[in-house]
Every structure is written in C-alpha cells, then in structure tokens.
Amino acid sequence: MLYREAGQYKTSYQSDQAIFPIAQDRWVVWAFVAFAFLVVPFFVNDYWTNAVLLPLLIYGLAALGLNILVGYCGQISLGTGGFMAVGAYASYKLMTSFPEMNMIIVVLLSGGITAAVGSLFGLPSLRIKGFYLAVATLAAQFFLVWVFNKFGWFYNYSMTGQITAPDREVFGFLLTGPSALPWVKYLFCLTLLAVFALIAKNLVRGRLGRNWMAIRDMDIAAELIGVRPLLTKLSAFAVSSFYIGMAGSLLFSVYLGAVEVGEVFGINVSFLVLFMVIIGGLGSIVGSFLGAAFLVLLPIFLKNFMVDGLGMLPTMAKHVEILLMGLLIIFFLIVEPHGLARLWQITKEKLRMWPFPY
Amino acid sequence: MKLKHLTAGLAALAVAAPLAATTAQAYELTIPSLVYRTGPYAPGGIPFANGYADYFKLLEQRDGGINGATINFVECETAYNTQQGVECYENTKNQGESGALVYQPLSTGITYQLIPKASVDEIPMFTMGYGRTSAANGKVFPWIFNFPGTYWDAASGMVNYAAAIEGGEDQLKGKTIALVYHNSAYGKEPIRTLEELSSKHGFKLELLPVDHPGQEQKATWLQIRRMQPDWVLMWGWGVMNQVAVKEASSIRFPMDRFIGNWWAGSEHDVTPAGEGANGYLSATFHAPGADFPLHQEILEKVYDADMGAGDRDRVGEVLYNRGLVAAVWTVEAIRKAMEIKGSNEIVGKDVREGLEALNVTEERLGELGLPNFTYPVEISCAVHSDPGTVLIQQWDAAAGTWRVVASGIEPDRSVIMPLIEEDSAAYAAENNITPRDCN
After folding, report:
1. Which of A116, A247, A307, B235 has CB atoms 3.0–4.6 Å from B187's, for a disulfide?
2. B50-71 confidence digits (pLDDT tens)
3. Is B301 found in the same domain as B264?
4. Are B262 and B402 within one domain?
C-alpha cells in the first residue's frame, strides 16, 4: 500500500528517464534531502559533527568515487588512501600558497590534481587486469605515502612532517580550524556530497557510464562495439580520483585539521573504502552511502551502546566491537553478496508488490 | 536515522543517569583518559594507562577524591588512531559538572590534532615528554604543557651521555651517530636538534627512518652494519622497539652504544631479545621499579581490594611508573588550581592556571610517596617544560630489571631554546597567534 503506483503515467521521455521514476521515491528522497539540509544543521553540535556526520559524509564521497572505478568500470584499486593523501596535500599547498582562495575552489582544484595523478597511475590498467591491477595500485598507495613523507616541499618543510590546516572562510563563515562552527562544516560537506552524488548519478546513466559498464562486463566485446578502452579506463580513473581527492581534501581541512600521512592515509584506509564499496554494493550510488554508513556509524554506535548503555569497559567494548564488525560483514555478505544496496532494492520490490506477493 | 536516534537516546540516558544521582553530592571532577589497550601500540599503551588509572583509584579509595571533590575517571579507547582520538575527545570534553579537566593522549598524532581544538575549548593538555616540542614555549602555547622534558632535551641528553662515555664533548668529533626513528611526526621530532648538535660537536648524523608499525627493519640494520656507527639513538614506539633491539643484537651491535629515547625503554621492549638485549640503554626521567612507598600503598589499597587496572606483578614497570608520575603531576596541578581558586569547583581553565603555577619539589615528592623518583618540576608562564634533565637506565637481562646508570644529565638548552623560539614563532605566524606577554 505504501507504493500505490496506479495512475502514475509517464507521458514524456523526461519523466520516463527520471532518476526516481516512482513518485513515492521522489517524495522520500526530497524529504530526506530537505531534512538533511534544513533540519539537521540546527541540531548538530561538536560531537555529532566531528565524530559522526563529517566522517560519514567524507567517507561517503570517497566510497562514491571508488565505486565509479571498481563498481562501474571494474578496475580494482587499492590506492584510495594514497589518492586521498594527494587531495589532502594538494589542498594544504593551495591553502598555504594562496590564502585568499575560496575553499570551494581549493577543494575542487585538489580533486583536479588528484584526478591527474590518478590517471597517471591508471595507465597500467590498459595492460594489466584484475588482481594484478590491484597490486599495481597498491604500489601507488605506498609510493604516494612515501613521497609525502620524504619531500619537505609537500609539508612546507615543517619539522615534523605534519600538515595543519590554517583558518579559512567560505562566504564569510569560518570553515577550517578549531573555531569553525559545526553546522558550517556539516553543510559544506553535505552540499559538496549532494552535488557530486547527483553528477555521479547522471554520469553513470549517460554515455560515459555505459562505456564504463561495457568495459567492466567484457572489455573485448566493448572494444569491438567501438568503446575505446584507453579513454574509458582513464576517464574512470580520473573521475574516481577526482572524488577521492575531494574526500581527502575535506578529511584534512574540514574534519581533522592536522594530518600525518602514514597514519591517516595508510593502507588501512584503502581497504576501509574498498570494504565500504563491497558491502554497500558494487555499481550502486546509494550503495556507496550505505556502505559508508555501515562502516562509519556502526562502530560508533556499538561503542556508545556497549560503554554507555551496557556499562562495559572501553577496552572490552573495543574487542567486542572488532569481533561484531567482522561477524556482521560476513553475515551481510552471505545473506546478500551484492551488498546492502541490493538488499534495499529487494525490500523496495517487495514493498511495491505488497500485500500481493505476485 | 533510526540508528542515530537510538544512539542519541542512549547517550542522553547515559548523561542523565549520573546527573540525577549526583545532584546532592560533592563536586565531581571529570578526568578523561585516552588510552589504547588495543592496536599495534597497545604494549606501550596498557602499562601507562594502568599507572594513570591506579593513582586516581588510590585517591578515590584513600581520600574519597581530591580535596573533597569526587573523581569521575573516564577511559576512552583510541587504538592510537587519530580519528578515534577525535571521537573520544568530543565525547568526553563536556562530560559531568566540570567538563574534561585535562587531556593526556599519549600519542603525538592525536596531540597535534588536539592542540588547536583544546586551546579553543579551554581545556589544558599535559603531553608529558611527547607531542610538539615547541609547545614548551608557554607564550605561544598557553594550553599545552610538556614537562618534565621535551624530545629535544632527550636528544641532547642522549648525545651528552655519549660524549661523557667517549671522554668529553670534543671526543664526539668525527664520530658517527645514527638515528633510527619511527617515520612519523613523533620520530622526526629530534632530527632538528640532532642536526644542530652534529654541526656543533662535529659528529656525523645518519638518519634511518622505519615505517609504521616497524616490524620490518632488516634493511635498516643491514645499513647500520655497513655504516658501523659509534652510537645508535632510537625514537621508537610499540613493536618497533622490540624488533630493533632484536635486530641490533643479531648484528652484534654493542648494546651499551644503543640508546632508546624514553618511549623506547620498557620491559616489553627488551625481553623478546632475551640475553641479547643485555646492556641496552634508554633515556628516562624517573626511576624504574616498585620500591617506593606510593607503589606499596597502591598494592595495598588498590590491588588488595581487587580494583587494580592491570596485573599486580606489572606494577613498577617503566611505563607503569610513567603513567603514575603523569597522574601525580596532574593531581598536583589540580590541587594547585583549587588552591588558586579557593574552591574545589574547578574547570579546565583553572587547571591550566594550576599547571602554570605547578611547583613539585623533592620534599613534596617525598610526601607523595615518591622520594628520589624524579626531578623537581617548576613551571612558569613562559616555560612549560622544566627541567629537561635526563636519566639513562640500562637493561640487566639476567636480573630482568632496569638500572639507572647516569643521572642529572643536563640538556644543551643553549641549542634547544633558540630552536623552540624559532619553531613556535613559525607556528604563531602560520596560525595568527600573538604570543602573550609573560611578565
């Protein structure tokens, strides 16, 4: 009954090709977006922003980027942490070299620089495939972290190799630095994520996205029907790295404020984002968000529940949390190997049929 | 969103429950303890956290708190991870009546993260012998305290010890000193000072980074074997220390020419290498062992009541003692803050005043049950790190104990102070801070 689609006619190509062709879906999404933009900013405090919402939004953006590469174009990448580091260091260099630059431009340019670096490391994908490509991108991960540790220019020759985000404003509101208000940070990240999620959705529905999927499904067949592997694969690497670079830039400037490359952008981040994509659902925009939510929110929720709710010792809770996360990941992958997005899709199909199963 | 409501509800419950219970009671002091009992650095994190927790437990058991105020000791697990550290900080900073009074994160990464945040939130940080060295300049970093010594004091003290063994500072000329360091902000910290000292004394400095977590050091020690340095200094933490000591013993590097800094000199760092670790040196700023009245009191009042944070036989380990002395200084600062304010209802801002006026003499240490345990400390507005004096301890593998072999080694502050000025001035310029006037 929730989905009463009777009477919803699609009389134009435009309505037929809408992102959410069913009216109810549209309402729910609009309501959710309106809630996120108009209601949440009035209630966020330091804890909610810095501990919960910012990591969620930023990892959502990173997972979205990686999903374009892995989920839509079928190229496995383990270099996410390294590419995020490129975004972070690019924005650090931009912020310190051009103090007047608008933060939106800083983030976009950081994404652009990462896209260039990403395409460079995407070149081997023309020759090597599958697991071998994963190893090649793993090299990128280690190489990039090494570069940012080794060459002083990247961290302005500071004595410790740490980079610290200076105070910067966006439209007169302080966005970075310790005095920035939580809602400014939240809205900034949310806006970027919303805009770029929309762009991603349209990219994957368009010609470029179809090319990516053709390459993913069978690259030789794709080549035969006229898809150029060079441009397609490199564009996937570029677009994906652009998103990941923006995520890295936000992670450094808005969320953490100070970053040490080996610790924050290590190999574990690459795996974390890849797991988000796999658990959320390969080749699904909403899956990227579900995966990010699963891996970012669940540990915090479990921790708060066990420590504050059940009164467990923090260390014990940590051990249980690690255990539970592992079990849940295995559980979800057995129940639905195509990820949370597929689970969501099945639920939706069932709801549309409900109460008549056939 | 359901998940969030649920957590919010639970969090609200958790906050509301103790509030309701304490309305009619004494003022409650919230002492957050960011610990890491899990993850790659847990071997170092656990004893420190235990020492820190046990002292507060003792105060609760023996005195019912501090000057009539009760203690709300909140542990939060960071796993040495910056992002979890941020979560812990945000989670604990507004807890209870007092809010968090002082942070002690025991991680250079989290320290760098929290330096600007804590300053805005007006909560002092006591980064005891770690973190940002130039925070010793209280004019630029009013909220950060890193006594009793900085990494630069340690580096200089270790070089001075080497000089003393070689037979004088002029004997260092032409010698080679290698620095094996954790390739992170923490490990890079001493490089600047060692470079200055190398040009001052004329020794050759070789830098050998080891990447996180430090399990793979074959190549590093092969280089050392080829290079044959006269001394090896190490800035390590966690598993890196054990591996380094093992590798050093396997290339037969003379252990009495190998000095770890004060985070690379605990029991668990040397025991895996067995006999081979005999003679390994490390810097420190307090005595090892459990032969002090305070330890006996902790064993009696905390461990006999089965309330100890860790294992009974690990009381008195080097890092346990370090956590203990951190707690002792923290509590002295809290007492000082209460004295200045004239009431026990203090908040983070007052503890900062207390830390700045801290003066723990040898006499006071004796009263606290730690005679001849560490150096007297006197903090002022401008100098947040005092005295910087270094002890050198040596591992006796047969007895399984650390023994202090040299004490009272003064760092070369004529070299360090200008560097602190320079680095803190750069930080002030980068972050638009006007150094405050300290007269």
Report:
1. B235
2. 999 999 999 999 999 999 999 9
3. no
4. yes
